[in-house]
Amino acid sequence: MSESSSQQQRKIVGWRAAIMLDPATPPMLGRVVEASGSSLIILADQEIRAGTVCRLFVDLPSAGGNEKRYLDCKLKITTATLMGQISRFKLIGQIVDLPDSQRELLNRALS
Asked: pTM here?
């Protein structure tokens, strides 16, 4: 799949995220700004090098707004770019090894 077709499938979102690089360190906070069933774009205060696989927790919206739903997945960072205007890093990553139950949560949030 080409990068342009992947971008067309992404949806603009505003989901809070916690990025775990190592279980022994506090999570890095970020915001998912674009999402598809296979990739996410996150804005974060710190760089994560391309090729790094991290654990990601995303606060997903619920249909009724009452219950909290969290996506728990692994993300392989493919690109990290400093966004000069906002002094944050734009992290592009591919979702890896997503269990069916988590994929269903993500697909519901994207629909």
From this structure: 0.86
